[in-house]
Amino acid sequence: SFNDPHHPFTPPGKYFDMYGPADIELPPSFHLRGNELPEPVRLLREARDGGTQDRNSWIAQAVHESDVRQAIALTYGSISMIDDAIARIVQVLGETGQDRDTVIMFTSDHGDFMGDHQLMLKGPMHYDGLVRVPFVYVDPALEGQQKAQTGSLASTIDISATVLDRAGLAPFNGFQGTSLLGAVTGTAPDREEVLIEEDNQRAFLGFREPVRLRTLMTPRYRLSVYRGAERGELYDLQEDPMEVVNLWSDPAHLQTRRELTERLLQRMLRMQDTSPIATGQA
Known about the structure:
Blueprint: H1 39-50, E1 61-62, H2 65-95, E2 104-107, E3 119-120, H3 128-131, E4 135-138, H4 158-167, H5 181-185, E5 194-199, E6 212-217, E7 221-226, E8 233-236, H6 254-270
Antiparallel strand pairs: 1-3, 2-4, 5-6, 6-7, 7-8
């Protein structure tokens, strides 16, 4: 496991200054202005502009241009370090003849705002930069069958299902993940939706109780609902890939919001645990 890329952004040795902040471009969403900022984002920007933010906090922060360029340059250094390390692993697999008998999966636990919407680190706002993570699957047994890339939706809980499927083992009762081998080979249809769940242990960013957030992702839309909040988020990812225009309060998209909310509810019900199975009942 690699701890990087992650704050406090300290790639070692030659990787620390491998990339220069002056050469880094800002994310496209940095200067874009939307119609209705999510409440946590508004509060973070006010704290930055008012000089009241805690710069040492692990919670997401609103940042300035110079912060973004420095962080991205250092993150690129960490990524290059990981690339080199993985190349060494793959090289040894080849030298020892194990490359024909090894499945490689590469992924991460979450993304990082990395300047998107003037934010850094991570927090309870499910922008694309935070919820989209890499997943690379290399299987010598599927040589010639793997797709170079798939746009199918997937979830972290699908990784264990994929491991079991590849090993020829059945999932246990209550298993919620779905094998990704069908997506890898193109033999399964693209998924229509995925559920993203976030439960925090603390109350922060304007919330009076520990933040809970549920998101439904579809190929076109993102719907996010916060516990205890009057407003949520709805973005048309096809027309607005930068997630700038929040359609939650738009009367023209009220029906879409209702339909997606019902789909979110149904998905949450389907994902509820059914194990153990009750016994001894008529």
